[in-house]
């Protein structure tokens, strides 16, 4: 049972920083601030449902996608680690998450902003999808899949609660507080990305078949 909870915790640690609900709350208020409370809550709920559906879809199909494209687990971990590290650096360097002026105006004109830009790419963008596929690739036990699903649900629930209370959170934290929290999330995400990268490299180095092929190739070259 403790191992099951460890998988839930690992999912939370990996996904929560990359979804960064507080930063998404700032984006949410910037494009829905003029709408009434009920409409904002409806948009937040739909965004959470979409984000959950997207991540679960990639959790289920992740292994199939890897097999179809011939992607190895170490390769996925390295690629996912690089992507997560890139997102982490952008969070560490950037100010409060914001869309470009033209995109922001377009989002404000949209009646429904729950799928884009809220669910995709804010809550379940490429980084979150890469992490989810990486989690799926790292296990083949049904119990672990249920743990990952629970972890995703908790992350999405946290995002939903953050969005529906976005006005209060932003009032308390202010722009500086949101930026500081975003940078903390970025640091945690950087650690997750580096660990993904390390795990992928170790898996390749300790693969006897891969190393023997590498040695044979080097011998032929030299």
Description of the structure:
This protein is mainly α. The chain has one domain (2-221). The protein is built from 10 helices and no strands. It has helices at residues 2-19, 21-32, 37-69, 73-93, 101-109, 114-123, 126-137, 142-164, 166-205, 208-221. The N and C termini lie far apart (52 Å). The mean pLDDT is 83.
**Percentage beta strand:** under 5%
In one word, what is the shape? elongated
Number of domains: 1
Kindly state the number of beta strands: 0
The assigned structural class equals mainly alpha
Give the distance, in angstroms, between the N- and C-terminal Cα atoms.
Answer: 52 Å
Query: Low-confidence runs (pLDDT<50, min 5 residues)?
Result: none
The oligomeric state is: single chain
What portion of residues is helical?
over 70%
User: Using only CA atoms, what is the Rg?
Assistant: 19 Å
Average residue-wise pLDDT:
83
Summarize the structure.
The chain is mostly helical. The protein has helices at 2-19, 21-32, 37-69, 73-93, 101-109, 114-123, 126-137, 142-164, 166-205, 208-221.
Keywords:
222 residues; mainly alpha; 10 helices; 86% helix; 0% strand
Chain-wise SSE layout:
Layout: H1 2-19, H2 21-32, H3 37-69, H4 73-93, H5 101-109, H6 114-123, H7 126-137, H8 142-164, H9 166-205, H10 208-221
Helix pairs in contact: 1-7, 1-8, 1-9, 2-8, 2-9, 3-6, 3-7, 3-8, 4-7, 4-9
């Amino acid at each position: 049972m403790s191992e099951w909870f460890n998988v839930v915790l690992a999912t939370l640690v990996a996904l929560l920083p990359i979804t960064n609900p507080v930063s998404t709350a700032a984006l949410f208020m910037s494009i829905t601030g003029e709408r009434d409370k009920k409409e904002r809550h409806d948009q937040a709920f739909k965004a959470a449902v979409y984000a959950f559906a997207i991540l679960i879809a990639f959790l289920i199909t992740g292994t199939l996608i890897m097999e179809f494209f011939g992607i190895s687990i170490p390769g996925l971990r390295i690629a996912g680690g690089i992507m997560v590290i890139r997102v982490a650096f952008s969070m560490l360097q950037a100010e409060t998450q914001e869309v470009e002026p033209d995109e922001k105006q377009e989002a404000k004109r949209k009646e429904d902003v729950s799928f884009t830009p809220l669910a995709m790419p804010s809550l379940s963008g490429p980084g979150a999808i890469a992490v989810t596929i990486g989690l799926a690739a790292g296990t083949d036990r049904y119990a672990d899949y249920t743990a990952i699903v629970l972890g995703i649900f908790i992350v999405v629930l946290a995002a939903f609660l953050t969005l529906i209370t976005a006005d209060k959170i932003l009032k308390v934290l202010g722009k500086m507080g949101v930026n500081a929290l975003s940078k903390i999330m970025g640091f945690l995400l950087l650690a997750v990305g580096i660990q993904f990268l390390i795990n992928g490299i170790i898996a390749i180095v300790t693969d006897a078949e891969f190393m023997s092929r590498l040695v044979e190739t080097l011998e032929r070259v030299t």
